[in-house]
Design a protein that fits this description.
Mean pLDDT: 87
Low-confidence stretches: 25-38
Strand content: 15-25%
Distance between the termini: 23 Å
Strand order of the largest sheet: 2-4-1-5-6-7
Length: 364
């Protein structure tokens, strides 16, 4: 399952530093001037999953394969981006290809790093970015609506559905609200996604704080958290600078560094998990001597849908799934003892997979 999260924000808020830490590379320039990132950089990141290590140890797996999520570093947007300012149109188009947006807000003061608006105000930063995305959505819909109306009047049922959804989106956008506030019926979800609205994407607010505030945040990050709660979005506090330093250390050095800062884990772990949860995702596992692997599925997926993530033939020819809960697998030290104890269950097509299930699939 290919999943992409856009990292979005004004110039010099720490987006590229965050991206470098996420991907453990220096692929994105983190220079102190606007538009230093000319092309969107992408990087695949492993989803932190300590349960996978435990399963691999029990099964003696030779290889561990975690779930992955792709982050896209979008160049700094500025006021007027929806009208093409600061290479805006190019980068707004890159966001449309993503499944969610991480809005990075600057919550640190550093006189050596300029701010494009010459002030430190994370809420104003978020307002500028959200406004530009809303304006881009408005322009996109208003360009389409005339043509869609003609088709709808001609009896085209698909156009009638599209027109209804366009009008549904235009109402909040014209009132200065993002399209994600719209509640869409299940039968309309596919057509809604086809509108490719920037502000319909799930949002995660990332408060980038100074090193001293990495554990609990600060007054500026508290404002971001309140904004996220009001917008029905998620938020996370992170110090991109600390995590960029951690990224080049060995696991032993990381542990020592984190202990010295009073941190339980890198902020990146929280960020990745929040992005994963934001998209309504969970993991199930397949385990054996060759490999222990995490597979990404949506919360609520059935056993055949979970099987289809491995291969479409698994879903088409699904017969049944053999399932062991993670806690049972660990407590009984593997599949054989779990089977003997009656903790291995045979589940059919209606079974809704639970987070952490250890699964085998039988298919024709």
């Amino acid at each position: 399952m290919a999943l992409k999260v856009a990292i979005v924000g004004l110039p010099n808020v720490g987006k590229s530093t965050l991206f470098n830490a996420l991907t453990k590379t220096a692929a994105a320039q983190a220079a102190n001037y606007p538009f230093c990132t000319i092309e969107p950089n992408t990087g695949d990141v492993a989803v932190p999953e300590p349960r996978l290590d435990i399963l691999a140890e029990i099964a003696g797996s030779k290889e561990i394969i975690p779930s992955r999520i792709t982050f896209v570093d979008i160049a700094g947007l500025v006021r007027g981006a929806s009208k093409g300012e600061g290479l805006g149109n190019q980068f707004l188009a890159n966001i449309r290809d993503c499944d969610a947006v991480a809005f990075v807000a600057r919550c640190f003061v550093d006189d050596d790093i300029t701010h494009v608006e010459n002030r430190i105000d994370p809420i104003s930063d978020l307002d500028i970015i959200e406004t530009e995305l809303m304006l881009a959505d408005l322009e996109s819909l208003e360009k389409r609506v005339v043509n869609v109306e003609k088709k709808a009047k001609g009896g085209d049922k698909e156009a009638q559905q599209t027109l209804r959804l366009i009008n549904l989106a235009l109402e909040p956008l014209r009132a200065g609200k993002p399209a994600r506030v719209v509640k869409v019926d299940k039968e309309d979800e596919k057509a809604w996604h086809m509108l490719q609205l920037l502000t319909s994407l799930p949002a995660l607010y990332v408060a980038n704080v100074d090193e001293a505030s990495a554990d609990k945040g600060n007054e500026l990050s508290d404002l971001v958290a309140k904004r996220a709660a009001a917008d029905n979005a998620k938020s996370v506090v992170i110090s991109a600078r600390i995590d960029s330093e951690l990224a080049v250390l060995s696991p032993e050095e990381q542990a020592e560094f984190l202990e010295g800062l009073g941190l339980a884990e890198p902020g990146l772990n929280r960020l990745i998990r929040e992005a994963y949860a934001l998209l309504g995702l969970q993991s199930y596992f397949t385990v054996g001597p060759k490999e222990a692997r995490a597979w990404t599925i949506h919360i609520g997926d059935t056993a055949p849908q979970a099987a289809g993530v491995i291969h479409t033939d698994f879903e088409k020819g699904f017969i049944r799934a053999e399932t062991i809960a993670f806690d049972d697998y660990v407590a009984l030290r593997g599949e054989a003892k779990a089977r003997e104890a009656g903790k291995l269950r045979a589940e059919g097509k209606a079974y809704v997979v639970k987070d952490g299930d250890v699964m085998n699939f039988l298919f024709s």
